[in-house]
Amino acid sequence: MRAVSLHRDVLVATSAVLQVNCVIVRGSVEGRDADGRRSASGARDAEQENPVRVIEPGGEVIAAAETFVIDSPVLPEELETLPALLEQARFPAPSGLLATHGDWDHLLGRLAFPGVALGCAESTAERLRASPGAAQRELRAFDGDLLIERPRPLALGSVQALPVPGRCAVGDRELELYPAEGHTVDGMAIWIPWARVLVAGDYLSTVEPPTLNDGGDRDAYLATLERLRPLVASAEHVVPGHGPVLDSARALEVLEENVAALA
Ligand SMILES: [Zn+2]
Prior knowledge:
The longest helix has 16 residues, at 218-233. The chain starts with a strand and ends with a helix. By secondary structure, the protein is of the alpha/beta class. The protein contains six helices and 13 strands. Strands 1, 2, 3, 4, 5, 6, 7 and 8 form an eight-stranded mixed β-sheet that branches. Strands 9-10-11-12-13 form a five-stranded mixed β-sheet, with helices on one face. Bound molecules: zinc ion (ZN).
């Protein structure tokens, strides 16, 4: 697994198989003093339980913060390493997991963080409800082919459906959620505004041509590309579900190529 920092608050870890990207995002909690206590002037309604202090490598306390993990690496040892990766980067342990869509290879976060709730678009929650055990079956088939053994089976827990389009608070920051259907029947793209990072889900990949999986739809795919276009144009980094992280110009080229391929 390869991990790089895209921004002070954004890491991307790329799995050695399928080149699946896992994005780790930290939102600071403003209005807290250095110990994570609520300061009188910065009181907010959204109560954060046990905010964690973020300590920069120099030992300086910058703020309390909250972390979300979006999608997942695939291999057992990569999932096992993930908590240590966050710790090393001085990101607090995640308080939430997010999945861009319901394909099994993006749903493995709970193997790394079993107690943490998984949030996803309502369309994905619906898909998971409609085919219970599908992700587990596909994971078992993949593991069977590659002779991969896991310490425990995948349990998705009670999946939290998020309204999309919508916003999702991480610390005092907000992630923006955009519908991203077409590759599959479900999904969302996640825009991290303060870092200008777009987590696209299975779109805009240089290693995977536009693919219509079960429930995928060409018109919905094209609509998603057009919906993402302005975000891609203003992005510092675009993280596809699989393959290299792209800058805005390259991602716009890929977007055009995908539109042409689907036309
Ligand atoms: Zn995928």
